[in-house]
User: What shape does this take?
Amino acid sequence: TGIGAAAQASAPEGYEEFRKLNASDYGELPILMIAAGHLIAGYKKIVNVGYGAIRKVADDWLDARKGNLMGEDAYKYPFYRAASLMCQAASELCLRYAEAAERKIQETADEARRAELEMMHKSLLWISENPARTFYEAVQLYMMYQTFLHLFDAYPAMALGRFDQMLREAATHPAM
Assistant: This one.
């Protein structure tokens, strides 16, 4: 009876009663089919390397094998293609937020708010392809990546990890 039986056997005491209360979005799914929680993505790489450089590595790998995909490379191709596409999508998300910030700038009369939106706009344009140069950009890129991951997969417990440690490193990074 496979995974379903294993799931039911491993369910904590009271799980059936809890499930019957409809207190969870997972409905009738066996408990082992619930998405993994507390995923901590590669925030540090995104903040320190940027989408453009990561996409370039993937695109260079793909270009070097164009028309000659042999052996183990055939198994690696989906990964590199997906990496390229996801970096492109994440960059586009940043650019769309930059466009939204630019529209808000045009609508805003308050000078302090305009300055804040202008900083946001410039930062979003930069981080759409590049690594963070400042603490502000590091925070913004970290949170934009979090937004992208949530939109892409919507895990119930997409964790920020050690946000404090990562940003402390960003604040003391020589380029920042």
